[in-house]
Amino acid sequence: MRMERLTGRGLALLIVLGTSFALAGCAGDYHLPRFGDSSAEIETRTPEEIYLDAERLLSEGNAKQAGDMFGEVERLYPYSDWAKRAMLMSAFAYHESGQYDESRSAAERYLEFFPADVDAPYAQFIIALSYYDQIVDIGRDQDNTFQALQEMRDIIERYPDSEYAKSAQMKFELALDHLAGKEMEIGRYYLSRGHYTAAINRFRVVVEEYQTTTQTPEALYRLVESYLSLGLTQEAQTAAAILGHNFQGTTWYARAYALLTGRGLVPANAGDSWLNQTYRQVVLGEWR
Known about the structure:
Serine Threonine Protein Phosphatase 5, Tetratricopeptide repeat, lipoprotein, elongated
């Protein structure tokens, strides 16, 4: 589920390349050898030359080679200012080429060495995106989704005033919705096969743990459906009451209402189940 490319190629370059354009201008007609040229041993070149060559490779669309070249600056001149810039740019270049492990590793090194630097939020954002851009469809393993959620939360909590916090919040919510969708898929599978208790357990997870996602209205409706199938009418009434309070204008509520009234029932807080506590919190505002 790759929602967008690593945002701000131009922004990233401006952030970490501040002085490189001035240096390029001073270089005049000097020709920088390309990475891999047999005519120049990379060990004999200055960090500026290697860095500018990596920048050129990136601008030409050779992101993988650019990442490797930025890595050479770090390897050969680890204590230079150029190495600091190259470390972050290698993370950016590797992400552009889809080498997420390498990208994450470079960004993590940057945070290890420069945790309080002005570009630390950007490095954290790259780490988060290295997981987020690998989120797969809900039918497969969701390890990357969980990792993305954790890393996006770190950005929101550690760098709330950064330019990346808003994007991290949006992606956090999308990833959360993705996990809720996984629970719904499994719940619908159980429901279609008459395994109502197993289905209820999945829909309950959505209502209790992912209640801010777009999956919640359907989860409440499916609870009505499942409880009615088990003959647990009070639980079905309570689920419908919660659904009606929060999502009355949805087709899910219309369907739930039709199910209940078709059996002579109406949405209401009835019985004594886990849903009653949810009703008190959501509808009545009683959190104690």
